[in-house]
Amino acid sequence: MAAWIPAAAEPVLRGMRGLPLLHSAHRMFASQTEGERKVTQILKENFPRATAIKVTDISGGCGAMYEIKIESEEFKEKRTVQQHQMVNQALKEEIKGMHGLRVFTSVPKH
């Protein structure tokens, strides 16, 4: 499965005196949260042909809002709304406890 470019690979934001900013929009050098791991596992189970899955907690770590990027052959010949419905169906139970969800889907380019 191909990976999305991690936040750690992005350039470090620098403030005054060239020191790194501590309140960057990305969690740098952090591992996945428990919620991110759970959502990722559910997506892997529901989209076994996925070539890339990236789940990011964008709520500041409380698990209330996630951004999901998923690339899978299962989305081939489906409209974007249908692709998103597939993701929402897979996460039906988890969505009940969320405040928001951003979904980005794509089909692998060969």
TrEMBL record:
Cross-referenced Pfam families: BolA
This protein's GO CC annotations: cytosol; iron-sulfur cluster assembly complex; mitochondrial matrix; nuclear body
Domain of life from the UniProt record: Eukaryota
Matching Gene3D superfamilies: BolA-like
Stored InterPro entries: BolA, BolA-like_sf, Mt_Fe-S_assembly_factor
Record's keyword annotation contains Ubl conjugation: no
Function statement: Acts as a mitochondrial iron-sulfur (Fe-S) cluster assembly factor that facilitates (Fe-S) cluster insertion into a subset of mitochondrial proteins. Probably acts together with NFU1.
The protein's assembly and partners: Interacts with NFU1.
Name of the protein this chain belongs to: BolA-like protein 3
